[in-house]
Design a protein that fits this description.
Layout (H helix, E strand, L loop, with lengths): L9 H31 L1
Protein name: Membrane protein
Keywords: Membrane, Transmembrane, Transmembrane helix
Organism: Alkalibacillus filiformis
Length: 41
């Protein structure tokens, strides 16, 4: 991917992907909590 985009280093892509990975993980945890609360009500 970094070869296809000039000016973007591998470390930049790794940093961005790490942020997105954490964000997606936390959003999935929130979704699970919302679903659990629905079923308990």
């Amino acid at each position: 991917m970094t070869e296809a985009v000039p000016g973007v280093s591998g470390s930049t892509v790794a940093m961005i992907l790490a942020i997105y990975e954490k964000l997606i993980f936390n959003l999935s945890l929130l979704q699970r909590n919302v679903e659990r609360k629905r079923y308990r009500s």
